[in-house]
Please model this.
Amino acid sequence: MVILGLDASTTCVGYAFTEDKKILDMGFIDIKKQKTPKDKVEKVLDFLHKSPYIDNVENINIEDNLSGFAGGRTSQQVIIKLAKFNAILCFMLENFDYTVNSINPMTARKQVFGKARVKGIKAKDLVKMKIEEMYNTSKWCKETKTGLWDKRNIDMYDGLVMSLFEKKAWLFPKFFVYCLKCINTN
Model:
């Protein structure tokens, strides 16, 4: 089962296609030059539909767009633009009959890495460190014109975390059935 993970922002969309925890492809889509949410979504959809893996995608996990904002560091306008863009992107993906799951980034990190935070380490640095412990990503990482590690690679890593996240059934039904069996035996 191929899973597509997306980390969408107003300027860049990180993506990763995985199957059985193996990376098939990942990267980022620069959408900085597109002016409207519609144009941004069209560019992302055009890019994704050219992927050889898109026809085998069973689930799309997208980072919940309003989960990771620290108070005061992001303007309301940026948050609104991102919410609009994410809503349109999710709507269009669902129109193509994909199952789209909006995932809290902290929940995904906790499941994929075993912890969501480490005191004294920024979230992005933790993601970079943990992903590079798990995988050799040199094949997909881009460099800037000056030869430095491109900061947009972190969006790709966040897309990978989304792709590695497994939506698990809640334990309540099993627990409920167990309790009913206990009651019936007494």
User: Anything to note?
Assistant: DSSP finds six helices and five strands in the chain. The chain has a mean pLDDT of 88.
